Amino acid sequence: MKLVTFIRRGALGIALAGLLATGAWAQSSSTTPNSDARQDNKEIRKDKRDVRQDRRDRNADNRDIRHDRRDMGKDKQALKESNEANGKNSAQSKAIRKDMRHDSRDVHKDAKDRNADNRDIHGDRKDLHHDRKDRRHDRHGK
What pLDDT, in 10s, does the model give residues 28-70? Predict the structure, then answer.
């Protein structure tokens, strides 16, 4: 009788351990992908926001470049008229040249900013692709 009781208790212990292990496994496997997918969704939203902001910055820089170049063209025409009317070394001509130099610097700075924004857009789009891939792998387990 003692042998039968010993076998019953052993089988009951193994069954109980199996149930507990299965429950823990089911709980851990369902929680992790959901939290990973949720985190990936947060990262995707953040990356989309970053791409939008960088595009806005790039477009603003392009707009500034166009305006500065237009100003440089107008200044060039004004300088030509001022040189004919007042001479090349007049105060008005010097002021126009100074304005042209300022516009030229602005064009250069805005072009550098635009190029940096293009690099940021490229990096953010790569991050967005990576996050979408992670989310897809978390959902489908591949």
Answer: 655 455 778 888 899 999 999 999 999 999 999 999 999 999 9
Dist. CA 79–CA 104, nearest whole Å: 15
Neighbours of 1 (CB within 10 A): 5
**At a CB cut-off of 8 Å and minimum separation 6, what does 92 contact?**
82, 86
DSSP state of 68: H
Which pTM was predicted? 0.64
Contacting residues for 90 by C-beta, under 8 A, at least 6 apart: 82, 83
Amino acid at 30: S
The pair of structure tokens assigned to 88 is 């090349």
Task: Name all contacts of 127-133 with Cβ < 8 Å and 24+ positions apart.
Answer: 127/43, 127/47, 127/50, 128/44, 128/47, 128/48, 128/51, 131/40, 131/43, 131/44, 131/47, 132/40, 132/44
Q: Reduce the DSSP state of residue 2 to 3 states and report it.
A: helix
Distance CA 45, CA 107 (A): 33
* HSE toward the beta carbon, residue 113, CA cutoff 13 A: 18
CA-closest candidate to residue 131, choices 42, 30, 31: 42
